[in-house]
Amino acid sequence: MVIMHMMPEDSVQTAVASPLTAIASDGWIRDGKGHPRSSGTYTRVLGVYVREKKALSLMEAIRKMALMPAQRLEGLTPAMKNKGRVRVGADADLAIFDPARVVDMATYVEPTKQPEGMLHVIVNGVPVVESGRLQVGATPGRAVRAPIH
Prior knowledge:
There is one protein chain. By secondary structure, this protein is an alpha+beta fold. It has one domain (30-134). It has helices at residues 9-17, 37-52, 58-73; strands spanning 29-30, 33-34, 94-97, 118-123, 126-130, 133-134. Strands 3-4-5-6 form a four-stranded antiparallel sheet, with no helix packed on it. Strands 1-2 form a two-stranded antiparallel sheet. It is globular and about 40 Å long. The relative contact order is 0.15.
């Protein structure tokens, strides 16, 4: 893996704040190694860009991290119409966090270090983070695939 530091922080903040930017991560972890954004993208946005820098509101950040990525993919993958929304019949995975404390802790040395302030994460009705602790072995997520034509 190659990690390049090419974007100055003011450019990142401008991109995060843009109404056209959806927020997602393509990072990965393998054998405990990888990019810290693999486990810290969303908590970084909430802690740094929402709370500390006030680059966007909490509701706008949630929309950019949940609804916008789902909307971007639903034309190709109709199952995405049930993602990124909290409503009856949706696949709404939920993250419950403390907005005053949530922040990423992952680093290049420790890319899997758990964030602070992420209290509960529920995927497909199953807790994968409970009281701030990762539930080892809990893997209730299901792959979403585009139909083959």
